[in-house]
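S.,

Sequence below, as promised.
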Amino acid sequence: MATESEERNKATVREVNERMVKRDMTVYDEHPGLSETKQFFPRLLQAFPDLAIRIETIVAEGDQVAIHAWYEGTHKGELMGYKATEAGFARAIFQARPH
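The prediction came back faster than expected:
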């Protein structure tokens, strides 16, 4: 059974993912550990403007949180040298994030 701190950490990760997809840029200021994500995620949203994140599983142990999530969207803009394809995209992602 998760501790109160672990439950709080899981809730934070859920909230951060929801706010990033909603393009709430203040999330990066409130969570300084997201500096690398702050550089990449806005470009991801430009390339996949309809991006949705569906978290399947979220696990916390101590101050570590891991998620298994589906990232889904339509490739409508350039990303990392790849031109828009207008194709659908769905990928299972596993991320481990320290709190």
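The helical segments are 4-21, 26-30, 35-47.

Coffee later?
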